[in-house]
Every structure is written in C-alpha cells, then in structure tokens.
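sorry for the late reply, my laptop died twice this morning and i had to redo everyting from scratch. anyway the thing you sent over, i finally got around to it. pasting the sequence first so we're on the same page, its 194 residues, then the predicted structure underneath. double check i copied it right bc i was rushing
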Amino acid sequence: MGVYFSQATMFLINVLIDLVYFVILLRFLFQLFKVDIYNPFSQLILRISNPILIPLHKVLPNQSNVDCASFLLLMTLKALQLFLLTLIQHGAIPTLFSLLIWPMGAVLSHVLNIFFFSIILISLQSWLNPRNYNPLTDILIHLTEPLLAPARRFIPPLSGIDLSPLAVAILVKSADTLIAGPLQHWGAHLGHLI
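ok and here's the structure:
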C-alpha cells in the first residue's frame, strides 16, 4: 500500500510542478524570442504567469530580452521537483550540486524539445497548408526563425525544397542527447534518483 501511495504522490508532484513549469518556460521563450504579446496564446501565458512573476520581477528585473525571474523560477521548480522525488523515493536529501546540475539539464532538454517540435510543426504546416496563417503559426515562426535563418545561409534549397529545418532538427536533437541528457543523468545520479 505504501508503494502505491508514494507512486501517486510522485505523480501528483510531477503533474503540478510540470504544469506551472511549462507555462513559465513558454513565457521565458516568448519573451526571449520576442513573440507578439498580443497573440492570443501569449496573452493566455501572460495571464496565467503574471500572479507568480510580477512580484519576482520587482526583485529580479529583466536583462535585455532575458526574463531572469522566469529563468530562476524554472530552475527552482526543477530543483524542488528533484528534492521532493528524492525524498519520497529514497528518503534522502539530494546534494546541493545535484540540485544545480539536474535542473540545468532538464531546462535545456525542454527548451531543445520545444525547438525540435516547433521545427517539425512549422515544416509540416508549410508543406501541407502554406497559406494558412493562425496565432500558433506566428509563435512557431518566432521560435524557429532564429535557428532556421542562419542554417538557410549555409544550406541552399535543393530543387526548391528547404532542407534547413531537417539539418537544424538533427542538430537540436543531437544537442539534447549529447549535452542535456548527460547533465540530467549526472544530476540524477548525484541526487540518488538512479
């Protein structure tokens, strides 16, 4: 019975922290890549995250396009998640080093995955319905264009087909596997999660 209770508790912790985390991560990326704040999706993210972030912005203001309060909150949420899961699973407290390393890997992995899936979605949309414009398309363009524009300079179209999204998607997935994955693994090992 105790095992099922701890599994249910870990599930609830993961769901609650990940929901808040995902909203804050989107807000961080939307500001970093200058997504239109009047976009309906941007407005939704702002409304949900403002109660948490407005007080933090008073203490930790933005630096250029970087929302420092959002980034600090992202790292804190992931560190809290690691702390609680380690405590529930192993009855131990993770090391301070693991509480720094694992969140960095987790945040980096999530950012890279958002880029990867954004590239896939914008590519599919451009092939299937290139003239269709909607608020989600605008967000995807803002998120992917800083990555795709430099790649287009080095990879010319082949028979009219833009191969830069494929190249960037491969690089993004490689970075997730070679950088973010080992950071998370190392942090989880130090935190006694594996």
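The chain has one domain: 2-190.
thats about all i looked at so far, will dig more tmrw
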